[in-house]
Amino acid sequence: MGWKLELLEAGPSSGAHRLEIGWLGEILAPASVDDIGLEHGLAHRLLGDLQRAVVALQEAALQTQADRLRRLDATLRLKDYRLRTIQSLHGTLAIRVPRLVRIGSGERAPALLRGSSRSTTEYRQVLARLGAWMSFRMAAGLIGQLFPLASGGSMSTVRRRVFAGAAQIDAEGVSDRVEAVTTARSIDLGMDTTFVRSCAPDGPRHHEVLIGVASTDDGRILRFGGVIAALDPPHRPITDALHRLGRCPETTITAFTDGDKMLRGYLLKAGIKERPVLDWPHLARRVQVAKTTARGMKAHTNREYRALPAIRRLLDSLHWRLWHGQTAKGRRALSSIERRLEAFDIRCQRSDRSAVPARRLRTAMTNLREYVDGQSSYLVDYAQRQRAGKPVGTSTSEGLANALVNRRMNKLQQMRWSAAGAHAVLTMRVDAMNAAHRGSAAATPSIA
Fold first, then answer.
1. What CA–CA distance (Å, rounded) separates 343 from 346?
2. What distance in Å separates the CA atoms of residue 398 and residue 284, rounded to the nearest whole number?
3. Considering only CA atoms, which of 345, 348, 338, 284 is closest in space to residue 316?
4. 186-279+393-440 and 281-382 have identical folds
């Protein structure tokens, strides 16, 4: 026995109309688990039939609307019908749209179906999102696998959708994208930079990318980013993010950077007068390199035997003092370590393997000294901030850089990008992550 599905249109005056959607064929008892339910292709064919039935009803509704306008306005006449072909996720649609013309008047007749696009908004958004998270060629093929009746086109089509989606996001503006802004008492802002390979033959070898994440005291999080060469002005993402999170004159903003003077300049241009805080993970990583190198050193003379344990203790003390914001005592610990390293200077001049750890530690201490001296005014008591439940670094922004840029553009896919292309992909990925966070936050029940 065969089965078919029907779409029933019930109206208060016109009665009921039945439209056949699809034919399922004979339904038999399943022989195995694999035979239960609908196959992927059959399910999408049924969805395509259902969509075409809905379009048929919409076409009839457009004709009814055109007739009603003609009865209300005697100057309107039916000019002709235009066949519009629209690409959707469930197949290509063809709808017959009446076109009206106004007689004896200079005014234009109202359009019954606005827009000149050849695809639905949902179709364009899916192509743009997939193209932002994977290669354009893979995104086009995946559309054909997930939606058998739809065509993802070529990789150039996906690329155009990504560019168009990013341009729409940039054109919407801050006031249009935010329905309501809650004033924030405090905002923690973490910023970092990374690089993307450039495809310009006579331009720079890399494009610098600005990455950031801002969070408020009530748990709202907003990510932002963009290629600096494609931003005008470069600090615009910072200003937009702070505005969307509810920045006001009374808002306290704590910014974290890795010591880059360019980032601090962007903060000043964004109107952040508070002194930024040096990112603790960047500082701790340099200290940890020195401690690891010191653990691998071996003493060969009596002078080295006396100096090596003291160096290791002073490195632990240096870590503790920097963690508690004691810059002056940390500098004295650095000087003590450098004096004790003089016991290894003779061996550092040798070319044998035993001198390699000593030379590495000398280089690590020189770099650490330069970093601490240059960033001493941006050190704070990180231990006190941690006890108060406040962040001490931009580890979230570094993880964001890996998720947004490195995995897609640097690590797994060694491809080269234009500034506009990298910025478009980055804009779409940031928007998708912010939308996912808003959705998860809205789905989380509040605890009274």
1. 7
2. 15
3. 284
4. no
Tokens of 193: 């930079």
Q: Give the C-alpha separation, 330 to 244, whole Å.
A: 40
Are 86 and 149 spatial neighbours (Cβ–Cβ below 8 Å)? no
Look-up: residue for tokens 């980032």? 263
How many of the other CB atoms lie within 10 Å of CB of 128? 27
Tokens of 184: 């924030």
Mean pLDDT of 274-278: 89
Question: What mean pLDDT comes out for the span 28-57?
Answer: 83
For residue 233, cis peptide bond before it (omega within 30 degrees of 0): yes
Taking the domain 186-279+393-440, which CATH number applies?
Answer: 3.30.420
Beta bridge partner(s), residue 194: 209
Cite the beta strand spans of 232-318 per DSSP E: 252-257, 277-278
Q: Which class in CATH covers the domain with range 281-382?
A: mainly alpha
- Using 50, 70 and 90 to split pLDDT, how confident is the model at 62? very high
User: Which SS3 state, helix, strand or coil, does residue 421 take?
Assistant: helix
Query: Residue 113 to residues 61, 69, 110: CA-CA distances in angstroms?
Result: 11, 14, 9
Instruction: Supply 198's token pair.
Output: 């450039």
| 366 compared with 400, residue with greater pLDDT | 366
Give the ranges where 147-226 is alpha helix by DSSP (H).
155-177
The backbone torsions φ and ψ at residue 213, rounded to the nearest 5 degrees and listed phi first, read -140, 130
- pLDDT level of residue 281 (50, 70, 90 thresholds): confident
Q: What span, in angstroms and rounded, lies between the C-alpha atoms of 380 and 368?
A: 17
Beta strand 186-197 with 91-102: parallel, antiparallel or unpaired?
Answer: unpaired
What is the value of pTM for the model shown? 0.77
Q: CA angle 117-178-247, nearest 5°?
A: 145
Beta bridge partners of 88: 91
User: What are the residue boundaries of the structural domains of the chain, listed by start?
Assistant: 2-28+39-117, 122-164, 186-279+393-440, 281-382
For residue range 430-447, list pLDDT tens digits in order.
Answer: 888 888 777 665 554 443
